[in-house]
Amino acid sequence: MPKSKVDLYAAIRRDAKGGMSLRALMRKYGVGYETVQKALISAMPEPRKKMEPRETRLDPYKPVIDGILTADLTAPRKQRHTVKRIYDRLLDEHGADISYQMVRGYVAARRQEIRLEAGKGVVDAFVPQTHRPGAEAEVDFGDVTVKLAGELVTCYLFAFRMSYSGKAVHRIFASAGQEAFFEGHVHALNVLGGVPTGKVRYDNLRAAVAQVLGLSRRRVEAERWTAFRSHYGLEAFYCQPGIRGAHEKGGVEGQIGWFRRNHLVPVPEVDTLADLNAMIDRWDQEDDNRRIRSRTHTIGEYFATEQPLLAPLPEDPFETGRLSTPRVDRYSQICVRMNRYSVPVRLIGRTVRVMLHASELVVYDGREEVARHERLIARGATRLELDHYLEALIRKPGALPGATALDQARAAGRFTPIHDAWWQASVKAHGERDGTRALIEVLLLSRHLPHEHLVTGLAAALQSGALTSDAVALEARKAADADTEPDETPPPAPSSQNGHVPLPAAVRARLPPDKRPLPSVAPYDQLLRLRRPDHNI
């Protein structure tokens, strides 16, 4: 027997063409006269008729629910009916014998239909767009988790994506502030080799937008962002606020997710963000060889045709850092963005200039750079440099063992176990105060000698029992001289013993004879005959 109705119709039509009568077809396939006639008229069976929906206990109350949903269209947003409230009203006001699941299913399907009927809803549809080469781009931040120096921290991935080619440039920063926003742009534009000539799409991040004016596209921009755009000639297009505008820059939204899944899984483990960004630069270059979906060419091939169409970069750089002028407190610290950083103690009580960048901050006293710190990620944290407190510690050596700067130097590996061993030996030999002071004098040498040479000098001095800063300096310079290789081959040594180039033979022939006696050490022999007087009684 045929497996389906289509197979049944095909078999009936085949046998009918072979001359089989209608009665024989009915008998062979066990069907009625009407079925045989339908098979001979059409090879395709008629579609099955849909059953009329059964009546439910909710049917009498559907007009009531429709009225409630229609009234909600003009009600305040936070005072509209929930499914639970509609269900409760049907029970209390109409005595309905219905279940909550019946109301929930009807409201879920009917609410959007009523909005569309009233002209207040829109169909969720996306219109394909065509992007001109070199004209449009999209920018966004995405949060990522990184194991930085052994600690899990949340960082921020900046992405600048060209809409035509799909070429994307990424950078990871400790924050998503305006400094990172600017530095990400500068890095991306330098990598791309130009500026898009059309619109660059942004969401309403605080680094660029100070205020959103109602439901319109108008924005009050941050002043520094306006200056930055003017400097590079960027034309900004701001998406709708919130999730409603995410699809307006869907290219970079998807790009961040793709990059995170393909390059940042598993969680990367690095010592510094600079190491991670070096890896990201390499990944960006490798991604030029991939194809996006069903495109016929790679990202790099599309970008090769797009890059010459970009506008040229400005010649003068833009200062991306933020300038502030904090005052140095009595702990030789300054407060920047709710974090504290150390400066040299000689600046206590003075006002300094701080240039805050995305990954570091630089402190200036006038035009002189006096401190440079890696920017802290968490708020309320402190970063101290032991070198900044040495002038105070040389006068107060007893404050060194409990100094916070010393703990941070140990954690960072700047104060090594060799330092501790030399310190203990020095304290044992010279006492607590003088031994600690000798260590501080050694630490002051790090301003003139490389750290690795100073550690080598400490180890050599400790092995020989020389527990003075002068001995450490001597050993450190020996290590530095041993590591230094001359760039050029030294000139050949002069032939004469006194280091001077000998005179030509013609000149020596005209010189008068030298009648001076040869030097002798005989007068000094008398010193050997002198005996040390014996003072023992």
What do you see in this structure?
There is one protein chain. The protein is α/β, with parallel strands linked by helices. The chain has 19 helices and 15 strands. The strands form four sheets. Strands 1, 2, 3, 4, 7 and 8 form a six-stranded mixed β-sheet that branches. A hairpin with a 6-residue loop joins strand 5 (209-212) and strand 6. Helix 14 packs across helix 16 and helix 16 packs across helix 17 (469-483).
**What kind of assembly state do the chains in view correspond to?**
single chain
Summing up helix and strand content along with how strands pair, one would put the structural category as alpha/beta
Counting DSSP H or I runs of 4 or more residues, the number of helices is 19
State the major sheet.
6 strands, mixed
Poorly predicted tracts of residues = 493-499
Distance between the termini: 139 Å
Strand content: 5-15%
Number of strands: 15
What is the overall shape? Answer: elongated
Range of helix content: 25-40%
| Rg over CA atoms | 42 Å
Average pLDDT, to the nearest integer?
88
Topology, please?
Layout: H1 5-17, H2 22-29, H3 33-41, H4 62-72, H5 83-94, H6 100-117, E1 137-148, E2 151-162, E3 168-173, H7 178-192, E4 199-202, E5 209-212, E6 219-221, H8 223-232, E7 235-238, H9 250-263, E8 269-270, H10 273-287, H11 299-306, E9 322-324, E10 333-336, E11 339-342, E12 353-356, E13 360-365, E14 368-374, E15 382-383, H12 390-393, H13 404-412, H14 417-430, H15 432-444, H16 451-464, H17 469-483, H18 505-509, H19 526-529
Parallel strand pairs: 1-4, 1-8, 4-7, 11-15
Antiparallel strand pairs: 1-2, 2-3, 5-6, 9-12, 10-11, 12-13, 13-14
Helix pairs in contact: 1-3, 4-6, 5-6, 14-15, 14-16, 15-17, 16-17
